[in-house]
Amino acid sequence: MDAVKDLALRLLEREPPPGPVMDPALYVAGSLPGLLAALAKPGGRADGPALGSLCLKYAHAYVHPDRIGQDVSLEAVTELAGQFVRRRGGCRSLAGRDGLRRLLLHHGFALQMLFDLPKTVHLLTALGAAASRVLAGEGFLGLDCGAGTGILLLGQYLLAGQLGVAAPSLWGIEHLPPVAARADDLLSALGVGRVLCGDATASAIYNNFPQGPVACLTNETLPSRGRRLYKEPFTAICQALFAALGDRLGDTAFVPEAVWAVDRAGEWLRLAPENAFAGDDGQGKPARLFAMADVELAGRRLPADRVGEPFADLLAPAWREVLGRRW
Ligand SMILES: C[S@@+](CC[C@H](N)C(=O)[O-])C[C@H]1O[C@@H](n2cnc3c(N)ncnc32)[C@H](O)[C@@H]1O
User: Fold this and answer.
1) Which of 115, 114, 106, 122 has the alpha carbon at shortest distance from 148?
2) 81 in helix, strand or coil?
3) pTM for the whole thing?
4) Whole-angstrom Cα distance, residue 21 to residue 43?
5) pLDDT (tens digit, 9 = 90+) per residue, 152-180?
6) How many CB atoms lie within 10 A of CB 99?
7) Please, what is the average pLDDT of the chain?
8) Per CATH, which fold does 117-314 belong to?
9) How many CB atoms neighbour CB 258 within 10 A?
10) According to the model, what pLDDT value does residue 6 have?
11) Residue 310 in contact with residue 122, Cβ under 8 Å?
């Protein structure tokens, strides 16, 4: 009977796309801590290939934390990307590796965000561009609502480093316990920050963070273009966040900077810090009933489904479709 089951499972197996996930000429060699230290330098500004390589190494360390300090080759990150893509149906390199497959399945949503290199790198680049909007004092308190793997906290670490703050205070909130625990372990090991397990739509969670003004806030809990905002917790998180920390958010650099939503009648709302990301006047229909449309990143408004376009070439063509799943 087991043999029949095995045979049936083997029939579902397919191989991931051929060839490296990223152009070998673009992939930056070295370990994750090494690349992170090289990029988090005062005045430094990482380019797309460096950020793409950083994301791939970070994904590798998230799945294989025991190999965090190793020089992770393009072959190794390509193998992992392939295993991730084939986590449901299986492939040769997942055969007999049930523990790894379960991990990829349980952390699938968080990893899916990270592995969409063009969109993730676009968000990280927008974070880098926020440098001119951050009041660089002695400290740097950064928060990330819906932290997932913690990749945007890594982006905040680069931003703080760029501003000359070597030891920022970075905190994420993630409501899925296994994801929060894994992200927390990884970011702690890298000396980047911490991730708390909790609900970012509840104001009480914000009491856990240090006092003082918030330098940077990332919140990528948005649905894809055309879907109503209530499908994801973005507006509920903003409501709780501003209720809890409103007076500490006056000079905060938000990423995204604003969100545009539209209803069936063609009425537009711009959700931005000045209206607590609740819409223009709070008088009419609640923002959560509007459909997601555009985001503002690095001073540019663009449709959410076009985020990542400038970085599309970071993924080899065969991998673009299977890894492009953020929005
Ligand atoms: C779209 S993902 C983004 C993850 C990460 N920030 C990134 O950019 O890759 C949204 C994350 O928010 C988490 N999340 C959803 N609702 C939440 C809530 N109420 N409180 C905390 N986290 C939440 C999800 O589990 C998911 O990991």
Assistant:
1) 114
2) helix
3) 0.96
4) 30
5) 999 999 999 999 999 999 999 999 999 99
6) 8
7) 95
8) Rossmann fold (3.40.50)
9) 17
10) 74
11) yes
d(CA 231, CA 233): 7
Cβ atoms 288, 282 nearer than 8 A: no
What does DSSP assign to residue 283?
Answer: S
220 lines ligand 1 (CB under 6 A): yes
Cα distances from 96 to residues 75, 79, 103, 213, 307, in angstroms, run 20, 15, 14, 50, 37
Q: Cα–chain-centroid distance for residue 292?
A: 18
Predicted confidence at residue 295, as pLDDT, reads: 98
Give yes or no for residue 221 CB within 6 A of ligand 1: yes
The preferred substitution site among 174, 206, 237 for testing ligand 1, maximizing ligand atoms within 8 Å of CB, is: 174
Contact 101, 90 (CB under 8 A): yes
Residue with token string 């049930």: 98
First CA to last CA distance, the chain? 41
- Residue 147 near ligand 1, beta carbon < 6 Å: yes
DSSP symbols for 187-205: HHHHTS-EEEES-TTSGGG
Q: Which of 128, 149, 132 is nearest to 51 (CA)?
A: 128
Q: Distance, CA 9 to ligand 1 centroid (Å)?
A: 32
- Residue 151 Cβ inside 6 Å of ligand 1? The answer reads yes
Query: Longest C-alpha distance within the chain, in Å?
Result: 66
Domain boundaries, the chain: 2-115, 117-314
Q: Which amino acid is at 242?
A: F
Beta bridge partners of 219: 145
Give the distance (Å) from ligand 1 centre to CA of residue 144: 9
Q: Is any ligand 1 atom within 6 A of the Cβ of residue 110?
A: yes
